[in-house]
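Researcher: I'm preparing a figure for a lab meeting and need a structural model of a single chain. I don't have an experimental structure, so a prediction will have to do for now. The sequence is pasted below. Please return the structure as C-alpha cells so I can convert it later.
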Amino acid sequence: MNNFLNKSDFTYYLPKSLIAQTPANPRDSSRLLVYDIDKDLIENSFFYNIIDYLRPSDVLVINNTKVIPARIFGYDKNQRKFEILLLKRLNLCNWECLIKPARKLKIGESLFISDELSLELLSLLDDNGIRVIKFMFVGKFEEILERVGFTPLPPYITTRLDDPNKYQTIYAKNDGSSAAPTAGLHFTEELLKKIRDKKIQVVEILLHVGLGTFRPVKEENILNHKMHKEYYSISEETANIINNAIDNKSRIIAVGTTTVRTLETAARPDGHVSSGEGETDIFIYPPYEFKIVKALITNFHLPESTLLMLVSAFIGREKTLELYNIAVSERYRFFSFGDAMFLIRGNCV
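Model: Understood. Here is the structure written out cell by cell.
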C-alpha cells in the first residue's frame, strides 16, 4: 500500500454551493451514499433507509456527548472585542480555550463578558491561540454559560441557526463538546426505534469533541500535525456488548469518526476493547489497520482534514476521493449539516 503523507494528497474540489447551511428536515431525510468495499458496490439512497443495510447481529455505537454553548464574547478595558471558544474544562473555574485575536490579550489581563461573568488569562499553551483562562462568577457556571454563550457552529455555516437543538444529536446527554458529532445528527427517535426493533444493539460511548477533531492540518507533511487530546469514556457494559459481538463475528458499526477514534484508542492487542476513561490524541491516516470497527457512518468532510484522512484509511485514499467526486457530481450536501456515507468493510456475519 502506498504511503500518502502530504496534506495535498487529501484534497478535492468542492463548489461552495454544496456546503450545507441548514440541516435536513426531518433529520433522516438526508441523502446516503453507501459503499461496500468488499463488493466495490456504490448505492445512492436516503438515511431513513439505513435500516435496510443493518443486520440483527450488528452493534451500532454512538457518541452521546452534548455540545455546550462554547462560543462567548468578551471585552477588555479598552473595549476591544474578543471571541472565546471553550475547548476543555480543567477544573471548576479553569478552561482551555481558543481566543481571537489571541495576541492582543496578555497574561494577567481580564475580559468582561457580562455582569455575572468575567475571565482572566492565565497562560499560553501554543502560538495558535490555545490559552488557559480562569472564570470569575457567582452562581452556577453552567447556567450562566447558557445565558451568555452561543452554539459553536463551524465558520463555513453562515446561516443563523433558529434552534440550537438542531446542532445536537437526539441522544446527546453529557455536556462537554465544542462541536457536534455530526454523523449522529441524521438519527430520529423513530429511526432508532426501528433499529432497536430489528434487534440491533445500540450502545453509547463518550468523546467530547474538541480541537483534536476539527483543528485544520497546517503542515504539508501530515506526520508533523499534532492532535489535541480529547476526553473519552467507555462503560464496562458497552465494552462487554462490543466484545461479545466481536467474539460472535458480528459487525461493530461506528457512528462518526469520534466513535471510531474512541474504539480504536481502547482496542486491546487481542482485538477487543477495554472499558475506562482517558484522553486520546490518536491520529488515523493511511495505512492503518482497524482493530474494532467494521463499518462507518460518517458525513462528507473538509478537504485536507484529519477526518478525511481517517476515512481514507478506512476505504483507501483513491476510493475516498472517487466517492467524494461522485458525491459532488450528484450534488450531495457536504460537512456538518450535510449528507452521510455508510462505508462497509470486513467479512462479518
